[in-house]
Amino acid sequence: MDILALNCGSSSVKYQLYDWKKKQVIAKGMVERVTIGDSFIIHEVPGRETYREEYECPNHKVAIHLIIKILTDKEYGVVSEITQISAVGHRVVHGGEKFTCSIMIDDAVLDAIKEVQHLAPLHNPPNISGIEAAQSVLPEVPHIAIFDTAFHQTMPESAYTYPLPHEWYEKYGVRRYGFHGTSHLYVSKRAAVMLGKEPKECNIITMHIGNGVSHAAIKNGISVDTSMGLTPLEGAVMGTRCGDIDPAIPAFIMGQEDLSPQEIDNILNKKAGILGITGQFTDRRDVIEAAEEGDSRCQLALDIEAYRLKKYIGSYAAATGGIDAVVFTAGVGEMGWLIREKAVEGLEFMGIILDREKNRNTMTRKTENEITTPDSPVKVFVIPTDEELVFTEDVVAILEGTYTDHMNFAYSFSSKEFQRK
Predict the structure, then answer these.
(1) Prediction pTM value
(2) Which residues are CB-contacts of 229 (< 8 A; sequence separation ≥ 6)?
(3) Quick one: which of 28, 160, 197, 208 has the most CB atoms within 10 Å?
(4) 2-147 sits in which CATH class?
(5) Residues 336-361: what's their mean pLDDT?
(6) Is 148 a catalytic site residue?
């Protein structure tokens, strides 16, 4: 059976086709510039040259038609008939409190996703458009929703409740939700295997560091706190998002600069973070190179990001009552040895003893590595994330009737016999 995973953004559709029998990705790619003109598809098949085609996609339905066209193309495709696609898994960024695990999409589920789209106005509407478009293109195929927020629904009330008028929570759902759930799920399960323990025996801090950044405090295998909040704006310093700041700053700057709520929101989400500090970069490789050449603001950006990471490690170690491991994942977490080094520097008192040479030699998105010394009481791992595999396994388990939830379901990657392809 072949499982299609779709991740619909406001102007893009990422896709992956997975052969469940062979346990391997057979194609993946992205349609870019959907709805905004000059759109095109990048299609990748292992062992072949990457294929690119210009194709105008005024909406997500056309983009998904294009994906199906390429997947079934005689020259560039990987399946002969559309009927070989057994199911579609859809990434949904925000499930609110309604969804604590992945679920088959029916009319009631889709309506419930629409009811919480105001909590993620930049993400949920294109997710919904993608679901409706895929349902129209593949009407006979089961469609399953996988939620970014589901993994964090185990947080206690004291962790997810904000110190705000309580009626805001009751009327509008204002609380901490957290994101990147499938990534935190995957790497925490893999970290437990590397520790030689069951997930329920582990306390782990997972640090997903890319352009978007989030951390999770995982106690006895479940999320008890996470850095992102009502929206993905809260928490760590990110590529273009500010993360934690004094909440009075937006109102102050709105008054000084005569900005609207939409304008200040745009600045905090798209012009702050690493970009705001450096004035020119979001890619940490560019920041590091400029810092090495003497750019003081780039050096400051590195120092700020590492300092914030260090603070989250300390606070989450306290929240979990002591940790077994810290995990770095996602683009920067997997490749950014300098940021990892600076983040754990000086944490020997917590039992983290970094092997600097191992850390500097670990710049890969393919293998799992331990970067602490053998006698380090707390381990630090670099684990490439695989959110699409979580998608696929949830979809197959729901189709087969074996799925429960992320806490009790036996994922293949929770096994020590698991081999990363």
Answers:
(1) 0.91
(2) 162, 176, 177, 178, 235
(3) 208
(4) alpha beta
(5) 96
(6) yes
